Amino acid sequence: MNKPCLIIIDMQKGMADQAAGRRNNPQAEDNIARLLQAWRKAGAPVVHVRHISRSSTSLFAPGQSGAEFQEALTPLAHEHVVEKNVPDAFINSALERWLRVRGLNELVLAGVSTNNSVEASARTAGNLGFNTIVVSDATFAFALRDYAGVQRSPDEVHAMALANLMSDYATIRDTDSVLDELARALHQ
């Protein structure tokens, strides 16, 4: 049995910048670090996704410190790194091929932002037939004005993105339940 693959999306220094805006789940980085530590201890596969913007004024432009991984979540030399320049980690990145070649069908997604890169990547993963879990407290969203002009809180944006995913694309779990499932899977 293959171990599940942890995919950490866009946990770059720019996401911690005040310019990114008001967000929810202040414990998300700690939960992502807990997941990463457990995956490394289990010898399970890890993929780090990094957004590289096409805009020279972006926090995530090549060469900007915002494009660098957060220090606590920096990939190890043997961990796979995917670079993307659109929200979806599967687009123009060869991620699907990398997973298929290794027979990895169980994916656990964490990172930012819930309603953008996490949701886009989870939708594609689900559509491609991967068994996908999104870790609700290891993701976060930012406040956003909706199409009608109503300001939505980070919690509202986060909750709606998770609701969108749980209908057809992914299972939603919290960090503790994912860690429990990983421990059970390793002892089978």
Give the tags.
Rossmann fold; 6-stranded parallel β-sheet; about 20% strand; Isochorismatase-like_hydrls; single chain; Cysteine hydrolase; about 190 residues
Note the run of SSEs as H and E: EHEEHEHEEEHEH
- What fraction of residues sit in β-strands? 15-25%
CATH class: Alpha Beta
Describe the biggest sheet? Answer: 6 strands, parallel
Q: How far from one another are the termini?
A: 9 Å
Q: Which strand order do you get reading across the main beta sheet? A: 3-2-1-4-5-8
Number of strands: 8
Overall description:
The strands form two sheets. Strands 3-2-1-4-5-8 form a six-stranded parallel sheet, with helices on both faces. Strands 6-7 form a two-stranded antiparallel sheet. The protein has one domain: Isochorismatase-like (Rossmann fold, 3-Layer(aba) Sandwich). The chain has five helices and eight strands, in the order βαββαβαβββαβα. By secondary structure, the chain is an alpha/beta fold.
Q: What's the gist of this structure?
A:
Helix content is 34%, strand content 21%. The chain has 188 residues and is of the alpha/beta class. The protein has a 6-stranded parallel sheet with strand order 3-2-1-4-5-8, with helices on both faces. Strands 6-7 form a two-stranded antiparallel sheet.
SSE inventory with pairings:
Elements: E1 5-9, H1 28-42, E2 46-51, E3 80-84, H2 95-101, E4 106-112, H3 114-127, E5 131-140, E6 144-145, E7 151-152, H4 154-168, E8 171-173, H5 175-186
Parallel strand pairs: 1-2, 1-4, 2-3, 4-5, 5-8
Antiparallel strand pairs: 6-7
Helix pairs in contact: 1-5, 3-4
